[in-house]
Amino acid sequence: MIGSLVAISFGTVFVLVNSGGLPAPWPLVLRVAGLLVAALLLVGLVRAARREAPAAGAGEAAGFMDRRYWIVVALEAVALFGGLAVINNVLDRPAVAVAWVAVVVGVHFFGLAAVWRMPRYHWLGAVMTALGVAGFLTHAFGGDAAAVGLVSGVGCGAALFATVALALRDATSAHHPTT
Q1: Would you tell me the crossing angle of helices 155-175 and 120-140 to the nearest 10 degrees?
Q2: Does pTM top 0.70 for this prediction?
Q3: 167 CB-near residues (< 8 Å, 6+ apart)
Q4: pLDDT, tens digit, for every residue of 41-60?
Q5: Helices marked H in the chain — which ranges?
């Protein structure tokens, strides 16, 4: 549940922040759609939480106290801020900053997948990393910051939303077997 809340939050941020450079009416359309999806996912999350036993979230919360989790987060922060410093201050390429964020966040999900034994995070990591690389390629082939933001930023928001939706689907099917 905690991981889903984090994913919904960051998915919303990815969509809201990275859709602004597009021509009208797309920023509004994407932002409203992102907020609507986030709201629907939150409703689903609340419903799923009510079905769970009261102590069910305790194991997940303990996962955030795992030393290995904090190592992954520390490495992510160093790569994220170090890379952004180089991109913005040395290379003067702020248009690809969100692509770098997508790559780093994507790679960090591989670490979390190992720490928490969550195979779905391998898929999320692969998708987000690929979206980051796609953003770099978009820029390399002449795309502007808005195009990179759409591919790497809005795309990553959608990937995070999709991951939560799949987790909710799985939680719902576990409570309502088809047999």
Answers
A1: 160
A2: yes
A3: 4, 120
A4: 999 999 998 887 555 444 55
A5: 2-18, 26-51, 56-63, 67-85, 97-116, 120-140, 145-148, 155-175
